[in-house]
Amino acid sequence: MSDTCYYELLGVSKDVDEKALKSAFRKKAMQYHPDRNPDDASAEAMFKEVSSAYECLSDPQKRAAYNQYGRAGYEQGGMGSAGGGGGFGGQRPEDVFGDIFADFFGGRQSGGGRGGATRGSDLRYDYSITLEEAFSGKQAEIEIPTTETCDPCHGTGAAKGYSPETCGTCGGAGRVRAQQGFFTMERTCGACQGRGTVIKKPCGKCGGRGNVHAKRKLDINIPAGIEDGQRIRLQGEGEAGTMGGPKGDLYIFVSIEEHELFERDGPNLYARAPVPFCKAALGGDIEMPTISGGRARVSIPEGAQTGKRMRLKGKGMPSLRSAVAGDLYVELFVETPRNLSAKQKELLREFSESCDEDTNPEHRGFISRVKSFFDASADAE
C-alpha cells in the first residue's frame, strides 16, 4: 500500500465537508471501478486506495486519528477503540457503496408505496396532412392501439380478493445485494423482477400484468401553421402503467404531403409561374392561386426575365410562434412560343429584324465578352 496522503488521493483539502468528500470519492471511484477498467490491476489497486481513504476520512473519529497520527499511526490502531464510528459516517460500508454505485447498476427501485407500480410506455402515432390542412388547422379523430388498465383487478394484477404482497426475497426493495470479496454488488431481484411485490394469484383477464390490449379513439387538434416533422404531445394518452402505475404519453408526429404547386420553407411559400413571351416583354398581369383557396393578381413588369421573383406579402403560411403570416414568392419563367403557324413565324422574323443591340442588352453583353475572350486567346498565341 502506498504512502500517498488520503486527502491527496481524493483531491480534497483537509477542511473538506462531508458532502464535498463524498462527491470527490464518487468521481474517483467511478473512474477506477473494475467494471470500467476490466483486467487493469493498477485501476483496481487505485480503487481500493480511494475506498480506504474515504472509509477513513468519512468517519469523524478515524479522520481525527488520521490527522493526528498520520496514515501509519491510523493503520496501526492509532485511532483508538472508541465506539460509535463504524466507518462511513456511522453507516454500514455496503450502504454507502450501494448509494455511490447506483449509477453503475441502474439505480435503486422502490417496491414500497406503489406496490411495484411503473409508468406506462409512451406511444408514437404518425399522421399525414395536406398543406392546405396545415394552413387552416384540422380537427380529426384517430384510433390508436394501446393498453388500458385492467377493470377486474383495477390494475393491481391480482385476482379478486387478493392483493400484491411484499417480496420476501428483497423485502420490497426490488434489488438484492451480494458480497463478492471486497465489493458489495447490487442486482435486480429475480423473485419479483424488480417490482418489490409478488402476486400469489394473478388476475384471470390480464394474467398479472395489470393492463390489457385495447384500441382507443381520440379527438386531436392539428394547429394552423404546424410544420413537417413537428410533434404534438398528449399527456397521459399513452399505454397504461403496470400495477396501477400512471399512463405514458402519446406523441403525434405530423408529416405534410408534397403540394403540386407550392413548396414551403418555414412560413413562406414558393411557386413557379410560366409567363407568355409577349407578356414578359410588354408587361401585364397574371392570376395566381393562394394556399387559402383565393386568387391574387401578380403584376409582371415590362421586360421581365426568367428567375425574377415576385413577392405577395402575407399570402404564405401562418406561424405557430407569431401572429404575422409568411409571404408567397412567385418565380417567373418566360415561356418560349412553340407550335407557331406560318404567319406567326413571319411576324417573329419581322420583329427579329427590327431589333437592335438595345433590344437585347444581355445578349449584346454576352457577345462582347465572347469577343474579348477570343481576342485574348489570339494574343496569347
From TrEMBL:
Superkingdom field:
Bacteria
Occurrences of domain J (ranges): 5-70
Alphabetized GO MF terms:
ATP binding; heat shock protein binding; unfolded protein binding; zinc ion binding
Q: Which residues does the UniProt record annotate as the domain CR-type?
A: 137-215
Q: How is the cofactor bound?
A: Binds 2 Zn(2+) ions per monomer.
Q: Name one GO cellular component term.
A: cytoplasm
Which amino acid positions bind Zn(2+) 2, per UniProt?
Answer: C167, C170, C189, C192
Positions binding Zn(2+) 1 in this chain are C150, C153, C203, C206
Q: Which metal ions or organic cofactors does this protein require, according to UniProt?
A: Zn(2+)
Going by the UniProt record, its keywords in alphabetical order are: Chaperone, Cytoplasm, DNA replication, Metal-binding, Repeat, Stress response, Zinc, Zinc-finger
Q: What does this protein do?
A: Participates actively in the response to hyperosmotic and heat shock by preventing the aggregation of stress-denatured proteins and by disaggregating proteins, also in an autonomous, DnaK-independent fashion. Unfolded proteins bind initially to DnaJ; upon interaction with the DnaJ-bound protein, DnaK hydrolyzes its bound ATP, resulting in the formation of a stable complex. GrpE releases ADP from DnaK; ATP binding to DnaK triggers the release of the substrate protein, thus completing the reaction cycle.
This protein's domain notes: The J domain is necessary and sufficient to stimulate DnaK ATPase activity. Zinc center 1 plays an important role in the autonomous, DnaK-independent chaperone activity of DnaJ. Zinc center 2 is essential for interaction with DnaK and for DnaJ activity.
What is annotated about its quaternary structure and interactions? Homodimer.
Spell out the family assignment given in the record's similarity comment.
Belongs to the DnaJ family.
- Write the protein's name: Chaperone protein DnaJ
What organism is this sequence from?
Hirschia baltica (strain ATCC 49814 / DSM 5838 / IFAM 1418)
Task: State the organism's lineage.
Answer: Bacteria, Pseudomonadati, Pseudomonadota, Alphaproteobacteria, Hyphomonadales
